[in-house]
Specification:
Layout lengths: L1 E4 L2 H11 L1 E7 L6 E7 L1 E3 L4 E7 L4 H7 L2 E8 L4 E12 L2 H7 L16 E15 L3 H14 L7 E6 L2
Parallel strand pairs: 1-9
Antiparallel strand pairs: 2-3, 2-6, 4-5, 5-8, 6-7, 7-8, 8-9
């Protein structure tokens, strides 16, 4: 896998394509990391990754105690992965909640006026991504590298400053 100087645009494109992420926060004591799957709404124009959450879920308390988070995106079928490090805030911005509301949110809340809904904003600082040509091509490249005695090029890997 070649290491390249990545671009923020590529990170935004990948997180938009993948859509779901594992949001990693620090627990209340700061002793452990806690990850949970969430539907992400990336917005490059806002320099934010948005989520809808419930005030009852505990994320707001964890974020208030330690706003440093990681948002990990994975598309195993395409062999694309992104890890975003940033800071999070939780608010009761009712206008933003209405903007982010989707039909899939109805699985969790009756409607966008539910008083328990909160909006969680992650402001990215850094990201790292891995893109692979796919399993079959990767296996062939690994086999060829073994025969040639070198390392396989399994796609692109980049670290990106998102500021």
């Amino acid at each position: 896998m070649s290491h390249i100087e990545g671009t923020a645009d590529r990170v935004w494109a990948l997180v938009g394509e993948i859509g779901f992420a594992m949001l990693v926060t620090h627990d209340g004591n700061g002793d452990h990391l806690r990850a949970r799957p969430m539907a992400a709404t990336p917005a490059q124009s806002d320099h934010a990754i948005w989520f809808l959450t419930s005030v009852e879920a505990g994320k707001d308390d964890e974020i208030n105690d330690n706003p440093n988070v990681c948002v990990a995106f994975a598309d195993p079928a395409k062999h694309n992965y992104v890890s975003v490090t940033g800071t999070a805030t939780v608010s009761n911005d009712r206008q933003k909640i209405r903007e982010l509301w989707t039909m899939s949110a109805k699985a969790w809340w009756k409607d966008e006026n539910d008083p328990l809904i909160r909006v969680l904003r992650v402001t990215p600082s850094y990201a790292e991504y891995w893109e692979s040509p796919g399993a079959t091509v990767s296996y062939v490249k690994m086999a060829m590298a073994v025969i040639r005695g070198d390392k396989p090029d399994l796609g692109e890997h980049a670290k990106v400053a998102m500021k």
